[in-house]
Structure formats: C-alpha cells, structure tokens
Amino acid sequence: MPIQIAAERESAHIMHALSIVVAAALTTAVLFPVRAFGQGQADLILVHGKIWTENPRQPEVEAIAIQGNRIVGVGDNDSVLKLAGPKTKVVDLKGHRVVPGFNDAHVHFYMGGDGITSVHLLGASSTGEFRKRIAEFARSRPKGEWILNGNWDHERWTPAQLPTHQLIDDVTDDNPIFVNRSDGHMCLANALAMKLAGVDRNTKDVPGGVIVRDANGNPTGIFKDAAKNLIERVLPHPSLDHILSALQAAQEYAAENGVTSVQDMGVFTAQGVNTMADVIRGYQVLEKRGELRVRISAHMPLADWKRLASAGIMADFGTEKLQLGALKSFADGSLGSTTAWFFEPYSDAPNTSGIPSPELLHPEEMYEEMRDADRAGLQLAVHAIGDRAIRTILDMFERLEREDGISERRLRIEHAQHLSPADIPRFAKLHVVASMQPYHAIDDGRWADKRIGPERVKTTYAFRSLLDAGAVLAFGSDWFVAPINPLVGIYAAVTRRTLDGKHPDGWVPQQKISVAEAVHAYTVGAAYASLEDGIKGSIEPGKLADLAVLSDDIFHIDPVEIQGVKVDITIFDGRVIFERK
Ligand SMILES: [Zn+2]
Fold first, then answer.
1. What is the whole-number distance in angstroms between the Cα of residue 321 and the centre of ligand 1?
2. First-to-last CA distance in the chain?
3. Among 165, 183, 315, 490, which one is least packed by beta carbons within 10 Å?
4. How far does the centroid of ligand 1 lie from the alpha carbon of residue 130, in Å?
C-alpha cells in the first residue's frame, strides 16, 4: 500500500492554504506534501506494526512517521522509511497492535487524581488496617491539612461495623479527617474535623441525611448523604500545589492506560473545589511549564455561560492541549440512588420514579439558558440517565433545532443510560452525541433488572440500537467513579459480562457491539463530541501524533481477554510518555 500523503486530509486546517498547490502535486511527488508539515525528515518512525488507523480509506497500515507533534506519513514499511534521515529514531513494533490514543469523553480528572494522591483505604480488610493506614498517611502530611477520599468499605471487615472517630482520633491529632466510603454516600470524620465544623451532640439532624449517633446521642463520626455537608461546608479550597499534584497523578495514570485525551466533566463541591476554575488554572500552569501529558477538554457548568459569552469565548476555544468543552447541566440523578428520572416507577421502589434535577424543575428557564448559551456559540452537554430525563432533553434539543435551525452544535447527552425505544432514532435525527460509559453497564448490570424490570433493561446501555439508528457514540469511563482503563471499557461494550460473573454471554446481549465499533467510540467518536475530530481521533497525516501500542491484538483475541490487555507504549504529542517495563 502506498504511503498516504498529508494533503488527502481536507480537515487538517494547515493544509487549506496549500490545497491548490497540493492538488497539482498529488499524482507525482509523494514527498512534497510531507515536507509541508515540517523541515523534511521524520523524528520518529514506527515500523512492523499492525496499525489500526480509523481512517476508512486506509484502515490498516504497517508504519507511521512522526515529525514534531504531527503524523506525517502512514503506509507500508518501505514507503514510510523513505521519510527517515540520519537523526530519525526508528522503533520496531514487532507486530504489535497500535490504535489512536484513547480519548475518554467523560472523566472527573481532578477528583480521580486527588484519590490517587490521598490515603488508600479500599484495600484495608480490618479496622486495625484501616487505622494503621490513616495513621501512616497522617504522619506524612503537614499539620492542619485535611485528609479526604479514602474509599473504605466496612463490608470487607469482620464484623462489618461502621468505623467511629474514636478508632482514629489518637493517631490523627493534627489533621482533620473526612474520608468517604467507596460508594460516596457516607464519610467518617475524626474529632478534629467535627470540632472545626462545629458539629456536636446538639447538632440537629439534616433532612435527606443521617448523623449516626451513639447511645448518648453523640455523633460517631459517620455522616450520610445530605448530612455530609455539615463537614464539607468548612473544607478549605485546596492549594494550587495540591491541585497540581493531583493532576500530575491523574495524567500519569492516564498515560499508563493509553489515554491521551480526556474530557473533564468537572468537580463536585464535596472535594472542596467549588468550580472548575481552580482546576483549569492548574491545567494552565502545567501547560505553561510544558508538563501537560494529556489533552484536556474542560467542561464548565451551564450557569457560567454568560461569563464566557461576555468574554467572547465560543465552543472549542483554547489550544490543542487545553480546550473549553461543553457547558454541562443536569436533568436527573443516578440509577444507584433511585434518583434517575423515569416515566414509570422503579420496580423495587414503586413509590418513586426518580426526580428531575433542581435545574429541570424549571424547564422553561433551563431551556432558555441553553438556547442563549447556544446562540453565543457555546456547546451543550446534559447529564440524563432515566428515560423521562432523556426524553425531556431531546425535546428541548428538538425545539432548539426548530427555532434556531440546524448547525454543528454537537449537542451531547451524558450517560444516556435508559432509553425509551421511541427516543433511540432521535439521537441521529437531532444530531445528538450519546456520551456513554460502557463500564457502568457491567457494573449496574448486576442489579439493574431488579431495579427497573425486564422490559426497560432491553434498551439500557443500548449501544447496538443507537449505532444501528445512526447515532454517534462517544465512550468514556466516568473515572473516578469507574476505572479509566479504556480496554476494560471496550471489553464491557463488546462482552457485556457483568462484574459478578453472572452473565457469561452478556447482559442484554443484543446490545453488544464489535471491538472496532467500541474503539471508534473511544477515538473518533470522542473527538467528534469535543469538536476536535479535525485534529485527532485517527492515525493519518496531519493529525496529532497520539498513539497507544497494545500488548495484544484486541481485534483477533477472544473478546473476554481484552480486559487483561495492557498498553505497552503511549505516544503523546509525538513523544513517548509511557513505556511498560
Ligand atoms: Zn460523571
């Protein structure tokens, strides 16, 4: 197969000015357009690979040439090696599978990184171990610093008893502690944290929450759901250094997993950061220092649209490394907490069908806000999980197209988990990206039948039906809520084998998709969702040089084995940023 030349990509902006010249050159001089990307020879050439390009005109090639941060040539070994000069580094891939760098369309990047750098309690299998880990971590931290996260799980202890502040007080005198259970629904505070928050036996109970108390009415340190806010409201803003170390840990974890782009959906107040602003500042510092090792698309809350619009900022504002993503709003809650909003009641909680988000309690205002943001040139993404929440948002998107016309909005619905069959074709018709996280399917699949019954699960995580109806799927992980590993996500979409092992042939198997379709959703689909498919998502000349080299060929092994496949090499911006030892 001949080398494909840069000019064939019409969407590569850089080529537009050259298109007339290049058109004349296309049939004869193969090297001419390659030179258009730089000063001649390639910096890095990968040969003897099985390279999955995501370019339908040249789907598989053997070799790639990279110059600077761009792909300058793809094709067979001999053609690509012609781009080598004396200084070119040539890497023999020894037949390994290469895919475009993964783009995770839905993460909470700072929160995930903050979890990595904090105390790790999930592996603590007894109260003794729990106490020991907290004591060791507290000794390593400056006096007065809050210790958060943790992800403990008392169900792993015998007896499975909730921890109390007395268990850790004498080893945490100098640091306020507020560590959460792995489901995020409850936290343990130590005495110092409660003192700082002014919480004691006289503190009144909170609607929607529980302060666990001992026989004398004293708080034990456990705060559930809405009661967590009693402590959270006194959490200080983290320092810039704290944010930077969390982001650095997060990008290291991304690199190990072949993830070269992430779309950051923001921060919950529980982490002590009230807006994305602190985190975006952190990203800018890393970019300025030349230390950003993953491309960021940073989403902001819809409520911020006016401030962005008044500064003249439109969708896709930013650089190739740090870009403004969509404006995010919420239509409902989650299936796990029975707050996802359905037409019919929950099968296991017949007194409720979930609830719309506070924003959606005023649908006309929410619509007007989205419409005005759209008119200002900003992109919209709405979290919607239950069928009724999704229908309501699709109706709003339809109205937007009717009133303001069709344009390249790339409207997004985040999660899009439980669809009414009638709404499936509307994603394609209304040009709405379904931004979905396949890992949730094999996680929720353990108990979703019980929660919503046999009929509704048929169009739950309906990857197959959405693709068949012509929708664009953008895949992500929802990390920190789930692992970031895209290979596990691909495994989940392809096998639908639930985590409990109870569906070896797949849960709702008619909704399985192919490996190629899942990879597409993790690369091209995700780039499309953030308006960046012109610069990344596929391996072709002119695109950014972001790649993942895999340990095994995911297109030819048993799909069940995909969950164990590792990323051997991650190339980001033309440089090797991770190599498995
Ligand atoms: Zn999320």
1. 21
2. 33
3. 183
4. 28
